[in-house]
Each structure stands twice: as C-alpha cells, then as structure tokens.
Amino acid sequence: MLLDSPTSSFTPTASFADRLVLRQRRLGHPLCIGLDPHLDRIPPLFRRGAMTHDQPSTVDAVVDFLEAILDRVAGRVAIVKPQIALFEQLGWRGLEALERIVARARAADLMVLLDAKRGDIGSTAEGYARAYFGADAGLRADALTVSPYLGLDTLQPFFDRAGETDAGVFVLVRTSNRGAGALQELAVRDPAAGPKAKGQPLYLHLAAQLADAVAARRGDTGWSSIGVVVGAGETDAARRVRAALPHALFLVPGYGHQGGRAAAAVRGFEPGPAGMLEGGLVNAARSVLFPSGGDTDDAPRWERAIDDALERAIDALGSAVGTVR
C-alpha cells in the first residue's frame, strides 16, 4: 500500500519514486527548487558583513536566506535540491549549514535531492552512499545525483544502499551545459553488437546500460527510483532517453535561468493515470531564488518577488504537464 503522509519523507513508507510522484500528482506540477546560495546574489535583506567565504557571518546569512526560501516554498513544491558545492565553498561551517537546511526542509515536509554528482570506485563509493542514504547517514537525503564516467560498477554501491533505504539515485546522462555534447554525443559502438553495428551517442549507450537497474527499482506508481539527468534544452535527447528508459524519472536542470522552456522541460514526460504528464522533476534555482525585484532590503517586497517567481514557474509547468489551473 502507498502512503503519502506528512512524515513520509522522514521515515520512508514507499519508494523514493512513489513518494515523489504521489506528491506531484497532488500538487499538479513537477517543480523542484534548487537551493544554490550564490554569495554575490544574496539580497541585502539577508547579507551580513563582506560576505566572504571565510567569515562565520556569511554562513549565517546563507542559512537565514535559505530558511526564508524554504518557508515560502513549503507546501507548494514536492522537493528541493541543495547544490553541495555552494556549501562546501564555505568550509566546515558550510557543511554544518547544509545540515541545518536539510533538517529545516524535512521539518517543512519537503523531500531533499542532494546535488553532489558523486562518482568513485569501491569502498569510496560505498562511503559516499553511507554518507547520504539511510536514517544513520551523516547527511541524509531522499535522493542523490551521481556521475557514471568511472564505469557503471562505480554506481552499484549507490544503487544498493538506495534500495536498502528507499532512496533515489539520478545518473548524469545528457546534461545541458555548453560543452556536454563534445563527450556525451560521441558515437560509440557496443563491441558485443558485432563489427557491423552502427554507433550511437554515448549518452544513449549509457541509458541502455542502465535499463536493468531502472527496471529493478520500479515502484507501485510504475516509476523507478533510479532516474537520469537530462537537460531542459535537450528535447531530442529526452525523447530518445525516454524510449530507452520508459520508467526512469528525469531530473531536468536548465529550466528558467538557463533558458529552458516549460514545454521543452517536460518533453520526456508521459501521461499519468489522470492524464497529467509525469515522470520527473524540473529544477529551477536562480529564476526563483533571485527574481526581478528580489534584490532588496524590504522584507514584504522580497516575499512578493519570491512568491511571484514561484507562482510563474508553477503555472508554466502546471500548464505544460496539462494541469487545469
């Protein structure tokens, strides 16, 4: 039986995919809020001192800012995505701040996808997996991004630990950064297919290699807790990856600030039981965190700017997936 109670993100009662999809169906949109504390863009309302990396007051500003963001988005989105690098730049205090933000998100009944893009071999991968998955994890997350480019065997510790703890894993497949195609679009040929077989883009070869792992983690909603990252502007890639991985959730970065449009962002989604497109989450960070009118020291004005940006993203994505709003 699927449960979607207010405490389901604390003590999982279903797979990551089921918990996420049920919440998205209730909300009517797939928006994920990226928690990216770019120090030079934090509004005057929250800034403290020189905002340099080595000052404890900078960490306090980051925490105050992101806690205020969480208060604005709670109940309006299913999940948030902290970018670990922007906390690591603040040293040990930054990681402590990340723990506080994750705890605040959980208290607000928000799921947490940690964007860390981990990828390493053997016991190191196992250490990363233990650090992020499970009730005893040092920095517990509902899901984690990982990189496959040291080989698919490096992903297995993440898959195993995630399976044991009802967590999710998102594998980088076709990203939206400018230089991604130089590697991810390279034509490669599977040696097992024979000498006359045609090559296909590396990202599709990778998707095919993930098919068994994705199928093994399908939940009651039909979606798998092993997902893939496909950029918002990569509409052709989204269609091709969806054909290869019909049950994988997509994490779609590049929406909003990077120019991705709502319809393109959900191009790899599929109709759900109520007709609404589903099958992933679409991340927006700077377009919601740092909107026009938000660079102010006036609290009511800042709140209005955040709320307006949030509603624009929700409305656009809700319309794109076919929600009647």
Could you describe the 3D structure shown?
The chain has 325 residues and is an alpha/beta fold. The protein has 13 helices and twelve strands. Helix 2 links the parallel strand 1 and strand 2. The longest helix has 22 residues.
Number of discrete helical segments: 13
- The helix-and-strand class reads alpha/beta
Could you list the spans in which at least 5 consecutive residues all have pLDDT below 50? 1-11
Largest sheet: 8 strands, parallel, barrel
User: Secondary-structure element sequence?
Assistant: HEHEHHEHEHEHEEHHEHEHEEEHH
Given the C-alpha coordinates, what overall shape results?
globular
Average residue pLDDT: 91
Percent of residues in beta strands?
15-25%
Strand order of the largest sheet: 1-2-3-4-5-8-9-12
Outline the fold blueprint:
Layout: H1 16-27, E1 31-35, H2 56-73, E2 79-82, H3 85-88, H4 92-107, E3 111-118, H5 122-132, E4 143-146, H6 156-165, E5 168-174, H7 181-184, E6 187-188, E7 200-201, H8 202-209, H9 211-216, E8 224-230, H10 235-244, E9 248-252, H11 262-265, E10 270-271, E11 277-278, E12 280-284, H12 286-289, H13 299-320
Parallel strand pairs: 1-2, 1-12, 2-3, 3-4, 4-5, 5-8, 8-9, 9-12
Antiparallel strand pairs: 6-7, 10-11
Helix pairs in contact: 2-4, 5-6, 8-10
